[in-house]
Amino acid sequence: MAYGIICAMDEELAILKEALDNGSTEHYGNNDFFIGQIHHQKLVIVKSGIGKVQAGITAAILIDHFKVDSVINSGSAGGIGEGLSIGDVVVSSETAYHDVDVTAAGYEMGQLPNFPARFPADRQLADKILQAAKDNNVVTHRGLVVSGDQFVADPKVIAEIKKNFPDALCSEMEGAAVGQVAYENDVPYVVIRAMSDVGDENANVNFDQFIVSAGKQSGQMLIDFFKNELLKE
C-alpha cells in the first residue's frame, strides 16, 4: 500500500517531511515529490500549490506516475459549519465545488456535467483516520468539505455557500478537485482539514496566525494514523 499525500502549502507539508524516513526526492513537472516511509507506511508527499487546478494536476501525477493506492489531501480550511472552533479537524465524508454553477443546464449546484454533484470519500480510510484522532484526543468532525478558487472571509459569501450547501462544514481550495480526480481513476481518497479560521471577518488575521498550527494538527493526525496501521500489522 502506497499513500499519496497532497498539501497546498509549505506550512502544511513541514511536519510530514520531518517525519519521513528513508527519504528521496523526485522532481516531476514543477513539483518535488518526497518519497519515503512514516511508521513503515510507504508514502509520496508533495506540495501541490494553492487552488483546484494545482491540486487536480498533482493528484493525477500521484496516481498515474507514482502509482499510489490512495490519495489523502491534508491541510487547513475555514470552518463554516456550526460548532467548529479553530484547531478542530474535519475529515471529509464527501467533497463538492461551491463555485461551479451549471444549474441553467439542469445540473445541481456544484455539479459538473458527467460527474456526480459530490465526490464520496473512502469510508474505510476516513474511519481509520478518525479512530487515530480519537485515540489522541483530537476534536474531529465528519462531513461535507466544499472547495472553490476563493479564500472565504466575507460573511455574505459564507451565507451564499451555506444556502447552497447547508451541510458544509468547511471551505477550502483543493479538496473537491482531488476528489474528482480520485473518482475518475477509481482510487480511494479522503480530505483532512484543521480549522485555521472560522470563516468570518477575522479570517485573514486568524489564517496568518494559525496556519502553522493547523498544518501541524492535520499532519499529526496522519502520523498517528500511520502508527496505528503499523501496530495492526
TrEMBL record:
Residues 3-225 form the Nucleoside phosphorylase domain. GO terms for molecular function: adenosylhomocysteine nucleosidase activity; methylthioadenosine nucleosidase activity. Its EC number is 3.2.2.9. It is an enzyme of class 3 (hydrolase). It catalyses: 5'-deoxyadenosine + H2O = 5-deoxy-D-ribose + adenine. Keywords: Amino-acid biosynthesis, Hydrolase, Methionine biosynthesis. GO terms for biological process: L-methionine salvage from methylthioadenosine; L-methionine salvage from S-adenosylmethionine; nucleoside catabolic process. The keyword Isomerase does not apply. Pathway: Amino-acid biosynthesis; L-methionine biosynthesis via salvage pathway; S-methyl-5-thio-alpha-D-ribose 1-phosphate from S-methyl-5'-thioadenosine (hydrolase route): step 1/2. One of its GO terms (cellular component) is cytosol. It holds the Pfam family PNP_UDP_1. It comes from the Bacteria. PANTHER family: 5'-METHYLTHIOADENOSINE/S-ADENOSYLHOMOCYSTEINE NUCLEOSIDASE (PTHR46832), 5'-METHYLTHIOADENOSINE_S-ADENOSYLHOMOCYSTEINE NUCLEOSIDASE (PTHR46832:SF1). This is adenosylhomocysteine nucleosidase.
